[in-house]
Amino acid sequence: MAASERSIEKEVDMGSSFLQKFRLYETRSSFYMIGRDKNRTSWRVLKLDRTEPTEVNIYEDSTAYTEAECFETLTRIHEGNRSSGGLKFVTTCYGIIGFIRFLGPYYMLIITKRKKLGELCGHTVYGVAKSKIITIPHASVLSNVAYSKDEKRYKRLLCTVDLTKDFFFSYSYHIMHTLQRNLSNNVEGHTYYESMFVWNEYLTRRIRNNVKDCMWTVALVYGFFKQVKLSVSEKNFRLTLIARRSRHYAGTRYLKRGVNEKGRVANDVETEQIVFEEAQDGNPVRISSVVQNRGSIPLFWSQETSRLNIKPDIILSAKDPNFEATRLHFENLGRRYGNPIIILNLIKTREKRPRETILRAEFANAIRFINKGLSKEDRLRPLHWDLHKHSRKKGTNVLAILGRLATYALNLTGIFYCQLTPDQRGDGFQNQNPSTLENNNGECSTYDILSKDETAPNLAVEIGDDSKDAKEDQQKEATMLQKGVLRTNCIDCLDRTNVAQYAYGLVAFGRQLHALGLTESTTIDLDNPLAEDLMGIYETMGDTLALQYGGSAAHNKIFCERRGQWRAATQSQEFFRTLQRYYSNAYMDAEKQDAINVFLGYFQPQPDKPALWELGSDQHYNAARFLANSVPENSRSTMKRSLSESSIISESSPAALGPVGRHGVAEKDEEVKGLSDSAPEISTSETAKIAASLSAPPPTLEELGLDDILENDCFCCDGNGEQCTCAAFDLDWVSSSGNSCEDESYGRSTVVRSFETIPESRKIESEICVVEEADSDNRKVNEEEAISGIPEGYVKWVMDEDGHFW
What we know:
Largest sheet: 12 strands, mixed
Number of helices: 20
Strand content: 15-25%
Number of strands: 20
Oligomer: single chain
């Protein structure tokens, strides 16, 4: 990606391209929203009709007014409506979130207060500090339905979605896309609202269908955003951590598990770590990013919420023998990030009562089955490592081992790095929507493969382009691209997953700082203050994501132990977080799930149809569709209850789908869209030249010390019948003793499986090894961890919950 290819033309006054502050006025018959740009040079008018009781008609004035002309227009409106009360000021706002209707009138959601969270490439990122819901029709035309109990309940339900927590947006930067994608493409259009990470896509559909552009609305991303200023060797830089939660198959812990029929998984979160140096006037700015992913195990499985059992049964369906949904999920990851797809699976390998282990075996079967149909270069690369087991062994440095796994993954994917010239940042960097990307077949240049004495200033390469711009840029450093992604999962994808993501982020952090020329080494020691700073940010992110999906802060035992926190305090904290999560899952998640379904438009109320709260759990409905004793799939076809309305095809044009297109899973509103969310369109020839200058074969597993493998879950074969190199690895070589069993005392749940007909070959492959022996060392640890004032047996039972205390 040469500088000339990344160049974005600078307009005379980019501040006029985005409306950032609005004033809402009303008359008896209309709302008038007046929007202005940051520099107060351009004023626009939007009109909303208030005379229709159940419709909303939106009219955009295409004229760009000056401040005086806008004031004159408002004066004329006031004079023309004087007989009915004139023009009245309603509120100041900072963008429209969207429009929604339940059974009666339309409502408009607006942001009335914002807070600055940080800046990217000179573009401000805001959080929602306060919002308001406004009824569109005038009170004189409202029907009795607007005052009905059901209408009021739907309105209260919508208001339970707290927009002031963890929603963020930017007027001029596409925060729903990765940095690599934003700097790689420049296409105008509305389709960036259809990104899987824009949570108000449904709410903005009506206005986007009526106005020329999206200057009146903001695209809300849900997840986590944190930016801090750090320094190394007296050089300042900024570290930004972004987590984007997918709106597809979104919901709460026990109500959204596994995968749906379109390949969407629960708790699907993209994490991006961005590092850039402080800008100097007139000088290019070096910037780097790395992306990783977490998501539920992509199989058809579920757990029923129970108020009587803190460990609900795991229900695993085998109604998808060819793993079509699993394959769709990984094909989508490939289109978004490229290959390779590295899977770090952290669930347990052995249990006294099989729970996680049955999912582990089925997941391994799915990966093996999918890999048989892929070329060697495109095969999934699974790594199975039982974090729970190894974290309980004395003398095991879990973070160090995860760091070695992260090194292996980063050697394959690389990081993104480039320089931004002054006209590519700030108001001069207007990144339009990259909605029609093609697959990137270029090679990725990894940074870690360089010799230790090579620093960023020595990496300049000349881009082979005869254009004038290329000659002027020939001294600039080569751009590096991330190609592929690490996908991490445990059971909930919260606690263990967050520890692994921190370890990956730390390894990437060292390479990013080195690429920026801030450090001589590509690694950061765990005892380095920078590692402590990064751990704090990942811990905060983990707590935030856990509260969103699980109902409590994350279990941070490993982080607490790393900081030397008092063990009794840690155990007490973890215990009460477990109880908090149980209470939230059992008593609050149903209403929370209903609110999410209404906000995202997955449930749309209709007169004379059952209300949302009269329906059963949508997770139960989704799982039951694949069980032998389930009701017919079309039994609820009369209800608008779309569990995950967007197909996995939504981020790719048919020409780029490959084998996916044969299954016809694209929906009507998802035709011919751009490639989703991270894979950029960059010159293959240029990338190849960069790769030739910077790359060498990445270190193998053996070179990284990951060759002592006890268990192999992938038995793909190449053309010669040899076992493939993409096999899964259960890295039990870290064990310091021969006893690798963990204590599963007080395990009370069983694994429930549907009894459909399963091929004999898969029955054999799915057998689970149940270990009955107990680890005496672990029993001793549990006895020491008993919390005073609470029966020891109950504490041990709670502590052995999935993912809790590992």
